[in-house]
Amino acid sequence: MSGENTDWPLWEVFVRSRRGLSHSHAGSLHAPDATMALRNARDLFTRRGEGVSIWVVPAAAITASSPDEKDPFFEPAADKTYRHPTFYTIPEGVKHL
Amino acid sequence: MTTTTVPTTAALSLADDALVLSHRLGEWIGHAPALEEEVALANIALDLLGQARFLYSMVGDEDELAYLREERAFRNVQLVEQPNGDFATTIARQLYFSCYQGLLYAELAATEGELAALAARAVKEVAYHQDHAVQWTLRLGDGTPESRTRMQRALDALWRYTGELFAPVEGLPVDPGALRERWQDAVGAVIRQATLTLPDGPDHTPWAAGAGRQGIHTEPFGRMLAEMQHLHRAHPGASW
Amino acid sequence: MTTAPAAGAADKTAPAELVAEFDAVVSADGRVEPRDWMPDAYRTTLIRQIAQHAHSEIIGMQPEANWITRAPSLRRKAILIAKVQDEAGHGLYLYGAAETLGVSREELLDKLHSGRQRYSSIFNYPTLTWADMGAIGWLVDGAAITNQVPLCRCSYGPYARAMVRVCKEESFHQRQGYELLHTLSHGTEEQHAMAQDAVNRWWWPSLMMFGPPDDESAHSAQSMAWRIKRHSNDELRQRFVDICVPQAEALGLTLPDPNLRWNEERGRWDFGAIDWEEFQQVLRGNGPCNEQRLNQRRTAHEEGAWVREAAAAYAAKQLTRTGQEAMAV
After folding, report:
1. How many angstroms separate the CA atoms of C301 and C282, rounded?
2. Is B219 on the interface with A (CB under 8 A)?
3. What is the pTM of this model?
4. Three-class secondary structure assignment of chain C
């Protein structure tokens, strides 16, 4: 009895390094289920006190934008400079804006 | 300034438990069933080693105590010196011991004595060891027919070393009877959830000479110590 | 390096605009990310290199784990466990990086176990005394760091990120090794001799860790063009020698090379010829521990199979159970 059923699925791990910051991607690991994935992530990614909270997500559950969609996805945002505060000039001396 | 006397026997008993189990877990490194488990077992070994060092430092020099005592002077329970066996044996040993240590430290943390400081610090570590053992007991018990057989066999084989956990230890301010009851409840619940059976054989050896707390150990322990101590003893007085 | 191939040139069949985009990212020192188009040969090279690197971490646990049960003080025992544990961790980071290239860890382990992928030859040497723990930390980890620091800027994003993490943790490894050797070197006569003996045995294999000389290195030019590699083997080796000579002096130990001398003109240390025949032999599997290392790895994997199966079976049962509960509601 060995073969495919011994392969544990891949999980992506996100760690909040301290309160006030969002979780960011730390890496990936294998685990049979979510409970063990969390524990493995704790052992692997916070050995030196690097985190206060962990998320694990099955790698298969992530939907990513495709690199082929790069232009239609992200380029239209590039020319809308009016979304940024620096687009606007305000009179000298006006404060708190 | 108050001077409290360190309960030497109690501190040594707990320190030896931690050191010996840490050593056994250290033997797994490089042999674990999955890479993630290499990291997990090493973490537990390191926690226990830290506890042992803290306790030894209360009594004397840590290296003298660890490396220069003879087998008969060690006060650890026989459970922790049992060889690793297969992964199920190691998990059964972890389950029995970490449940005991968790209950013991929780109680010690609430006392006034010298050991309270260590217990308060260690209780969180032990909770994690306990969780590790519980998670694996569930998976091995309720996994495949093979893992189930191995897990039950391991629980049965180590059962005879569990009674000793509840022998009274001089200077340890806990009620062994009450501890035993809570331990049986905790361990029993996990074993049932893992679809396994709580062993019902004798939980101690009939030998009147006693057991680990009296310095009576099992044969594999002498070999373990020989390996652990030989280098230190080969260079008397050297520092490392 | 005027003859270096262009970064994407290897892939003749790829659409020109994809190749151009890849070339632009690499030559601008940008990072290639997993879902970007990349030349097949770039992918293959990375898989080979990252896998070999991951395997080295995992196999590299063995020579040091060999001394965990015999560490001569509790402090040293704790340090050694933490270090070997880090190596398992580094292996995991690196397998993770390799998996972003479309291979599974199981596949890579299988290749390691069947001898189709390699690990660093240095781990085919035995650890004969406690002083070897110091020599490995100082020389082997030192050489690894010299090799790895430039990899933090490697063109493949996940590899570079894994290396940042590894390098941060690796510096503790080197320092503890140096400290260990320093203590032995200044300890009893026997301890000093033990330290010198370990350095004698590990010095030359450490120099071999940088790989064959530049004019014989099969993959170097292409890897440099792809910015997977940043410096040549010989350059990194020279750097390492220059760092080690004064460190050895501070240890009170000598390096086993009668031809080691300061070259005023170059401003660097000249060193003797490396025995490349030994290197080739160890690479081919004839080193003192090749078989032992692979056997232990295979055995651990095979003996762990029932555990991994049990956990997978339990997970599957839990899924079915929650599914049934959901249906019952």
Report:
1. 24
2. no
3. 0.93
4. CCCCCCCCCCCCCCCHHHHHHHHHHHHCCCCECCCCCCCHHHHHHHHHHHHHHHHHHHHCHHHHHCCHHHCCCHHHHHHHHHHHHHHHHHHHHHHHHHHCCCCCHHHHHHHHHCCCCCCCHHHHCCCCCCHHHHHHHHHHHHHHHHHHHHHHHCCEHHHHHHHHHHHHHHHHHHHHHHHHHHHHHCCCHHHHHHHHHHHHHHHHHHHHCCCCCHHHCCCHHHHHHCCCCCCCHHHHHHHHHHHHHHHHHHHCCCCCCCCCEEECCCCEEECCCCCHHHHHHHHHHHCCCHHHHHHHHHHHHHHHHHHHHHHHHHHHHHHHHHHHHHHHC
Alpha-carbon distance of B55 to B63, in angstroms, equals 12
| Cβ neighbours, 10 Å, residue C117 | 18
Count of CB atoms situated within 10 Å of the CB of C48: 15
Residue type, B64: E
Distance from the B40 Cα atom to the nearest Cα atom in chain A, whole angstroms: 6
Residue with tokens 């000298």: A92
Tens of pLDDT, residues B172-229: 999 999 999 999 999 999 999 999 999 998 998 888 778 999 999 999 999 999 999 9
* Closest by CA position to A8, among listed C106, C103, C88, B91: C106
For C89, the closest of A6, A30, A47 (CB atoms) is A47
CA distance B34 to chain C (A): 7
From C274's Cα to the closest Cα of chain B, the distance in A is 31
Q: Mark yes or no for CB contact C311/A27 under 8 Å.
A: no
Written as six digits, the tokens of B235 are 């260079």
Reported as a pLDDT band with limits 50, 70 and 90, residue C329 is: low
Q: What is the ipTM, given to two decimal places?
A: 0.96
- What's the angle, vertex CA C156, arms to CA C90 and CA C102, rounded to 5? 75
Angle at which helices B115-141 and B176-193 pack, to 10 degrees?
30
Residue of chain C whose Cα is closest to the Cα of A35: C315
The SS3 assignment for A29 reads strand
* Residue B209 in contact with partner chain C when CB distance is under 8 A: no
